[in-house]
Design goal:
- This protein is mostly beta strands and 494 residues long.
- The protein has two domains: 30 residues; 459 residues, Beta Barrel (Maltoporin, Chain A), CATH 2.40.170.
- The chain is 11% helix and 59% strand.
- The protein contains two helices and 21 strands.
- It has a 20-stranded antiparallel beta barrel.
- Strand 3 and strand 4 form a beta hairpin.
- The radius of gyration is 24 Å and the shape is globular.
- It starts with a helix and ends with a strand.
- The relative contact order is 0.10.
Length: 494
């Protein structure tokens, strides 16, 4: 007991000293580099502040059938990692102590009626390496969801995902479909910032007419010289007409513009590689429920780019999407196709991507829940703006398959397994293709409703296939992680 108390006191004292010193070091580094990191954080904080204001407005005056639940949490864990830098040779292993405080706020309806739904989840990860103290870091994860009828004629829906991490295995989460355009930063142990936000406000104009205002943002701030940082801000409008109010069937016309900008972390790969451009999209679409359990969304339009850089200006093409969603008594499945004009992420190029996606989630036995997420994307780069061997010179095909199972053995005891397979193939036969494997096994046992013991295992592997040119910063590796955690999370209901 005395040794455990001494260890905990050492961790907490080291946390305060290390955190204060790290803040000063990072502040000096940002001043020296001249990055707009601070400005970006202020923008993110501003977005969150606006969203929380909307939440407060939505919550105020709601019916008594709504319930607010606050759940503070504190988790303490020990992780063993046999390859902390994800290298093929000279592997470095370490024990990592992880302290993770957090807070979750949920505002949900307890009655089968339309009302405000709000889910805010934040936690920080303080990581202390036993033998590689220079790798000590603090990670952050924040997710936010809001759907609310703020007024009889105004509906608002918002989603946000914010990640700061140095853990390569902690960068896979996305709001949308993964496209695999950042193989270097996904492998390197370097501090990255990822923020996705999307939302819309629908205003009923009278009769069956409605006006939608759309907005979104993307921030990918990486710390590797082979890739560009990406900043995207999207605004748009949509004019709709309800064909069937009861079934939420409608047609619409829409316009949207995305402002893409980039920042180099080292030498710009080629002239105008980091030049900004805009993507304009004009289209029309329809949403129709064929039956109460079968819905179709479809759209068709035209998209073009504008830019001061000749390599990125005047790109154009037909875009469209179709998605079929089937609802079952115990689950849901969907199949979709989308074609759009977008940015190549780490390369700064203009890309036409075609994506076919399939998603299914079903409760098989009451205790066993299965889910499958999969997609294949064809990426057609419209103008070569990079000369480095990190995929900028070649069209790509990206495949992702992500099955998972959750089984509730007993009321307090559950197990889960998830697997991710991703494959990136390049049309340039000289560039090596890349396959990634991720396996995650975990089990949790609740001693009390608020006290949970968890044990998990992670396996990651990457392989290069064919070709005679390896991408700079990408190599074969295997990585194994085992982690034991104890989490206290008392729920406070109002």
């Amino acid at each position: 007991m005395r040794l455990a108390r001494s260890r905990m006191e050492e961790i907490m004292d080291g946390l305060m000293i290390w955190w204060c010193g790290r803040r000063m070091a990072l502040r000096q580094q940002r001043r020296q580099e001249g990055h707009s990191y601070v400005a970006g954080i202020w923008r993110l904080q501003g977005i969150i502040a606006v969203w929380l204001t909307l939440v407060a407005t939505a919550v105020y005056g709601q019916e008594s059938s709504q319930r607010l639940t606050l759940t503070p949490s504190l988790s303490l864990g020990e992780r063993y990692d046999d390859n902390i830098f994800e290298t093929r040779t000279n592997k470095q292993h370490d024990f990592i102590t992880v302290l993770s405080p957090g807070i979750r706020a949920q505002y949900l309806t307890t009655a089968p009626a339309v009302g405000t739904q709000f889910d805010f989840d934040y936690h920080a990860n303080f990581e202390f390496f036993a033998d590689h103290s220079s790798q000590n870091n603090v990670g952050h994860r924040l997710s936010l969801m809001l759907a609310s009828p703020l007024a009889p004629s105004l509906d608002v829906r918002l989603r946000d995902l914010f990640l700061i991490t140095e853990d390569p295995l902690g960068r896979d989460e996305r709001l949308g479909v993964p496209t695999g355009l950042r193989p270097v930063s996904q492998q390197q142990r370097a501090r990255t910032i990822h923020n996705e936000a999307e939302g819309r406000a629908d205003i009923r104009l009278g009769g069956r007419m409605s006006l939608g205002v759309l907005f979104g943002s993307l921030v990918d701030d990486v710390s590797v010289p082979q890739e560009l940082d990406e900043f995207r801000y999207t605004v748009g409008t949509e004019l709709g007409y309800a064909l069937n109010v009861a079934r939420d069937s409608r047609v619409f016309v829409a316009y949207q513009v995305a402002f893409e900008s980039f920042r180099a972390n080292g030498t710009v790969p080629s002239v105008n590689a980091d030049a900004a451009f805009q993507v304009h999209a004009i289209g029309t679409g329809v949403r129709h429920e064929l039956t109460p359990t079968l819905a179709v969304d479809a759209g068709l339009g035209y998209s073009f780019t504008t830019s001061d850089a000749p390599q990125k200006d005047g790109k154009h093409g037909v875009i469209g999407n179709i998605k079929v969603t089937k609802t079952f008594n115990n689950g849901e499945a969907s199949l979709g196709y989308a074609r759009r004009l977008s940015a190549g992420g780490s390369t700064g190029d203009v890309v036409i991507d075609d994506t076919v996606s399939a998603i299914a989630s079903i409760n098989l036995t009451g205790k066993l829940t299965a889910r499958l997420d999969s997609n294949v994307t064809w990426l057609n780069f419209q103008g070569v703006t990079t000369s480095i061997a990190t995929s900028g010179n070649s069209d790509q095909r990206f495949l992702s398959i992500r099955p998972s199972l959750i089984y509730q053995i007993l009321r307090p005891w559950s197990v889960s397994v998830a697997y991710t397979y991703e494959y990136t193939a390049y049309t340039d036969s000289a560039t090596a293709n890349i396959s990634d494997h991720r396996l995650f096994l975990s089990t949790q046992y609740a001693f009390r409703e608020w006290l949970v013991l968890g044990l998990s295992y992670r396996y990651g592997a990457q392989r290069e296939h064919g070709g005679n040119v390896s991408q700079a910063g990408v190599s074969d590796f295997t990585d194994n992680q085992v982690m034991l955690t104890v989490t206290a999370s008392p729920a406070l209901r109002f």
